[in-house]
Amino acid sequence: MPLVYKHSVKIEKAVQAAGKLFARQGYHGTSTREIAQLGEVSENTLFRHFDHKEDLFWAAIRWQLASQKHTCQGQLFGDWIGREDKGGQAWITWHLSGNQWIQASLRNQKATTYFIPGGTTLNDINFQAVKRIGKDLEINGNFAYERWKAPIYMSGQQTVTTTTIQLTWFPGRKVSFSEIDTRMQAELPPGLPR
User: Fold this and answer.
1) Which of 3, 52, 111, 128 could cross-link to 120 by cystine, CB 3.0-4.6 Å?
2) pTM (2 d.p.)
3) d(CA 183, CA 109)
């Protein structure tokens, strides 16, 4: 994947056209023929500069980020919501005991259309329960439902649902390696070096 392409006004125009089309129609809904037509170049010219459609997609993203004044050399700053986004998150935890709880959380995030072409929206809800079963077993269950929309990546609203269950064993007796070594040496037949 070429990260740097030969600069020319034609290619820059094609990259801008790709960004507009990806934002409107999504990655899979946009053809290289449409990009070439809107960018006023031939498909051959596109493929002389980009090996694959995916390379053109990432060039459009880099161009969009670099053209914004809201980034530091094309990189987003490090909080979860990003620059120029709006959103919030909330959660509530009910402690059943010191090591058992139930938690519910909500999150909403929205990126503006002038920062990411087409903007993005993300909403999710998450439930988690941690329950001790006796002294040495713990069960941890998690359910998450996520609904997102990112037209530059995929057209239409997308949903993701995940469920995880984890069983953890906390052994009551801890054994160290030196303890095992001492036992093994004690079991050696007489006459062997220890």
Assistant:
1) 111
2) 0.51
3) 58
